[in-house]
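Dear colleagues,

For the upcoming journal club I promised to circulate an example of a predicted protein-ligand complex. I picked one with inosinic acid because it came up in last month's discussion. The inputs are reproduced below in full, followed by the predicted structure.
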Amino acid sequence: MPATIIIGTQWGDEGKGRVVDYFAAKMDVIARYNGGDNAGHTVVAEGHKLALHLVPSGILYPEKTCLIGAGTIVNPLTLLEEIKTLREIGVEVGPKQLKIAAGAHLILPTHRSLDGASETRRGEQAIGTTKRGIGPTYADKARRVGLRAGQMRNRQEFAKAVRNLTEIHNERLINLYGLEPLLVGPIVDQFTEAAGLLAPHLVDGAALVAETLAKGKRLLCEGAQGTLLDIGYGTYPYVTSSSPIAGGALTGLGFGPKEVESVIGIAKAYTTRVGAGPFPTELNDKIGEQLRQVGQEYGVTTGRPRRCGWLDAVILRYVAQVNGLTELALTKIDVLSGIEPLKVAVAYELDGERIETFPAEWGAEAVANCQPIYEELPGWEEDLSEIRSREDLPENAQAYISRIEELVGVPVKFIGVGPERESMILP
Ligand code: IMP
């Protein structure tokens, strides 16, 4: 069973990148299975700090194969930018290292405009999207009118398809939103040029995955965003338009569940969210601000300040269920140093009743009506960043971790204790 899936257990930004980076070293193929350039994580390579949005973190290991899977959506222009940035610092990003599944859908500039227009139209109910065109691109996929990466192989036909879809989008921009259309010619030119550059990277993604697994090689499935942003199991409608959950790895890469060895959930030691939507344990006070400052909680893609709050074990229990988590990685526990007492939500009160389950399927309004029931835990003062074994953590930090394991029913195998690549307690 050579596949490992790494997922976010909250609303994204749990620090998946670093855990993926750690695992990538032991894997043969690292594959992104959902989302597009709405995601973002910072990696440090060759002394440079850079933000990756779509290219899997495994790209920093030249001997590994990175796959952008069929469940993702690709903006060819931002992908080329990312490749350029990587090459500038000496990272090799040829067709051998980076492969793009022919079934991945493509994001057009008009998808971005439609995303922005829809957000403006929603007014108070805006999702707070990253405006990268994610919703409109997945909508076109579902409507069966989308453009797929594989079409880039035939540049002439591709140019026609880009022109056609851009024109359809322009009509929507004009007629539905009263906006100016985008100039079609330059988009077609940019996209056909991009097609020439990206075509050598195209592969049959599912076939590559099948071959990898058949040879007993190891596959790492890298999820973007988090479970609570899942289109089906998140806090709908305040979600993204893809499936960040473990099931999304199967549909996004095209392989079966019997290959899955482990599902690792990445959880921040507290909770954050960017964008709108319910967040039961949100803190709009000094502690929330402290978490934001100490944890540097600002979005990598949009720079937006993240909303911060206490750890929510109701969420983690739910997430363990829908993903079949086998282990947890707890990140940024160092950020909690100096907060006394710590609180963890262990249940909710909803309509006068105590509930232990996260009511995601009942929708955002039900979640918004949940009042967290907290358990208080003693904090610690020490700086944790140099600690490399769980037993060396302050007793109260150890107790905090053990309590999470008890509440969620999943062992914590990795603990992030600081911003450096090596600031991690490993099993
Ligand atoms: P979209 O994915 O741009 O459509 O945005 C939908 C929601 O998902 C918004 O609340 C975004 O802030 C959130 N979101 C999308 N990508 C990420 C991410 O990588 N980290 C955290 N939140 C994200």
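Two points we might discuss: Residues 155-175 form the longest helix (21 residues). Residues 3-104+202-263 form a domain with the Adenylosuccinate Synthetase; Chain A, domain 1 fold (CATH 3.40.440.10).

See you all on Thursday,
B. R.
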